[in-house]
Design brief:
Elements: H1 4-10, H2 22-52, H3 58-86, H4 95-128, H5 139-160, H6 162-166, E1 168-170, E2 192-194, H7 199-241, H8 251-284, H9 290-315, H10 317-328
Antiparallel strand pairs: 1-2
Helix pairs in contact: 2-3, 2-9, 3-4, 4-5, 4-7, 4-8, 7-8, 8-9, 9-10
Pfam families: TAS2R
Keywords: G-protein coupled receptor, Membrane, Receptor, Sensory transduction, Taste, Transducer, Transmembrane, Transmembrane helix
Family: Belongs to the G-protein coupled receptor T2R family.
């Protein structure tokens, strides 16, 4: 029987133990708290308006709630555990719990990516209609299609996360990892590490994940936002020619929404892209800057979750009114 150290060396995982300064830990805790409170506020305020208000903007509000829900779940199920680990509390899980947690972490991060892309794609589709659809003009059929799309996002990404359940295990106290995925943790957490049959199979999974799940959504987000900007540009030109056309009447409102969504997607691309670059530098290069880049990747993963509620508040009327009333008291 091999000793624990030899067993740990056979684990092909993802991540690295990175020392964290008190300043970095305090900043990270602040971002985690902002992410939880901010996205919970988005769910509460917009969710209440969806339930009580049967007028405009319900479809896009439901997509925003879905994105905020994924943000909250990622923060509660993953980032709070990272904070506990940073505070020096050593927690270790059984193999079964590690398999469950690794599957949940990958699932929630995956849903987070595609929910953000769905928001951008939905807005582009809305702009490309002859008359932008408002509220219930789509009827119950449109809402059912939207709900089905959201369910498919969760279901398909659940299927994508199954390998995380299969190829993960619990490591020891001195376990380090040799492979990292953006969609999971950036270091051993609760003793959970990847356990691929070989280094090559681990790299194959990481590469496939990077291309299909991490890189393609970013390119699609950039494409849909460029499409939205171009559509708004053509609508703006048409306004000078046909002032009373129905397609023109909501251009100003749609332009404001496009700016907010563009800012949201740019924030996501910056944070997610930074994380991808840092992670893959570690996976394929292992240069002297690897540990520093892993710290950068860790903060890049939380920046979008923490800041997206503030970006949404800039353009969402109900969120803005709630914040104003909160600050005035």
């Amino acid at each position: 029987m091999s000793n624990p150290e030899e067993q740990d060396e056979d684990l092909v995982g993802m991540g690295l133990r990175v020392s964290v300064s008190p300043t970095q830990m305090a900043f990270y805790i602040m971002l985690v708290v902002l992410g939880i409170l901010g996205n919970a506020t988005v769910i509460g305020v917009i969710g209440r308006s969806v339930i009580s208000d049967h007028s405009g903007g319900r479809n896009s509000d439901m997509i925003i709630i879905n994105m905020a829900l994924s943000n909250v779940l990622v923060s509660v199920m993953r980032n709070t555990l990272l904070v506990i680990s940073d505070m020096g509390l050593e927690l270790y899980s059984s193999k079964e719990w590690c398999q469950f947690l690794m599957g949940v972490w990958v699932w929630l991060r995956s849903v987070n990516v595609w929910s953000t892309l769905f928001l951008s794609a939905f807005h582009l589709q809305t702009l490309r209609r002859v008359t932008p659809t408002i509220g219930y003009l789509n009827g119950s059929r449109g809402i059912l299609k939207l709900l089905l799309s959201l369910v498919l996002i969760w279901l398909i990404n659940f299927i994508y996360s199954i390998p995380a359940y299969i190829f993960s295990t619990n490591g020891g106290v001195n376990t380090t990892e040799t492979l990292m995925l953006v969609s999971s943790t950036t270091r051993p957490l609760l003793g959970c590490v990847w356990n691929f049959p070989s280094t090559y199979s681990g790299l194959a999974y990481a590469t496939t994940s990077m291309v299909i799940h991490e890189s393609i959504p970013i390119f699609l987000m950039a494409f849909t936002n460029l499409g939205s900007l171009y559509t708004l540009y053509t609508h703006g030109r048409a306004r000078s020619l046909v002032r009373d056309a129905p397609v023109i009447k909501r251009v100003s409102a749609e332009r404001r929404a496009a700016k907010v969504i563009l800012g949201l997607i740019m924030l996501f691309i910056a944070s997610w892209g930074t994380s991808i670059i840092s992670v893959n530098y570690y996976n394929y290069n292992r240069g002297s800057a690897a540990e520093f880049l892993l710290v950068i990747a860790r903060f890049a993963n939380i920046i979008f979750i923490a800041m997206s509620p503030f970006v949404l508040a800039v353009g969402h009327r109900r969120l803005r009114a709630f914040l104003k009333s909160l600050l005035s008291h």
